Amino acid sequence: MSGAEASIEVAEALALAARVAEHDGVAALSEDHRLALEGGRPGHLAWRGGDGALVALAARAHDAVELMVDPAHRRLGWGSQALGEVLAEEPETRLWAHGDLPGARALAASAGLRPVRELLKMSRALGEAQAREGGAVDAADGVTLDLVALDEATDPDRHRALWLDLNRRAFADHPEQGRWGQDDLAAREAEAWFEPALMWLAYPRSASGEVAPRPAASVWVKAEAPQRAEIYVLAVDPEQAGRRVGTRVLAEALAQVARRGWREVELYVDGANLAAVRLYEGQGFAVETRDVQYVAATG
């Protein structure tokens, strides 16, 4: 078996990820890691068979790696070799296993890795009832939330800046989301699925009609498939905790999704974020799949 190499053709890597996803029934690459590959960020490793074909890949984004092996080359030691070389290079690397599949669990256990984080993919069906529930976001405590989309903003650059500021504060403890800057936002806006009409900021408006200068929350919807949308990001200002802002904004987002004809909606949430999990369960979401992050056991 050949050792790792850092020279990777993006198209070749994406083709491998597609084969793995088709075989396993879950995505092999997260969006973050795909963008890291396409953007030429360093740290990725590849392994090739005797014929030069790509058989294993370790894609890196920030401090986490997503490792995949071509289904046609499994049970031949490629996974163990690739994982061993990744850990030898950076022992504290965090590794994602999409779908929490038995093979990934066995490989992690053989290397002495332990699970430290769980990412839940939750989903639910939508119908006419959700579409009829749309409209102005209901008032609570005398405050109404006015939703303004990016394509409605009088100053789009300010809209983006306010979105990033809210995102940083809402996800201050999140290892990926809280790091987003202008380049990360621009990369998402360049994606084929992006629609400025589906990226909202929610501004509090008092009973007297005064609108706050800063948003209380944001919600961003992604077209995932012809019949399925994703609540891509839902962020609530920490100062708005306890005011049911997240519940109200999510309900409006679901109404917007239903009115556009999508019949299913999904989202991702950290399993340790129990308040968010309860919020989504209360809106009819249930766990569809689980991704697990592993690190080397210590002590």
Structural account:
With 299 residues, this protein is an alpha+beta fold. It folds into two domains: 10-111, Aminopeptidase; 123-290, Aminopeptidase (3-Layer(aba) Sandwich). The protein has nine helices and twelve strands. A twelve-stranded mixed beta sheet has the order 1-2-3-4-12-5-11-10-9-8-7-6, sandwiched between helices. The mean pLDDT is 92.
Present the secondary structure layout.
Elements: H1 10-24, H2 31-38, E1 45-48, E2 54-61, E3 64-69, H3 78-89, E4 94-97, H4 102-110, E5 113-125, H5 128-132, E6 137-140, E7 143-149, H6 156-170, H7 182-189, E8 199-205, E9 217-225, E10 228-236, H8 245-259, E11 264-270, H9 274-282, E12 286-296
Parallel strand pairs: 3-4, 10-11
Antiparallel strand pairs: 1-2, 2-3, 4-12, 5-11, 5-12, 6-7, 7-8, 8-9, 9-10
Tally of distinct domains:
2
Give the H and E element order. Answer: HHEEEHEHEHEEHHEEEHEHE
Biggest sheet: strand arrangement: 1-2-3-4-12-5-11-10-9-8-7-6
Name the beta content range. Answer: 25-35%
CATH topology of the largest domain, what is it called?
Aminopeptidase
Give the number of DSSP strands. 12
Based on secondary structure, the structural category is alpha+beta
Q: What would CATH call the class of the largest domain? A: Alpha Beta
